[in-house]
Amino acid sequence: MQYLIWIALSLTISLSTSPVALADTEAEREALTRLVYEIRLLEQLIQRAEANASSKTRIRFRYDWLRQDLKLIRNGVQAHLDVPDTAPRIVPSLRGDYRH
Question: Which residue has the higher pLDDT, 23 or 82?
Answer without folding.
Answer: 82
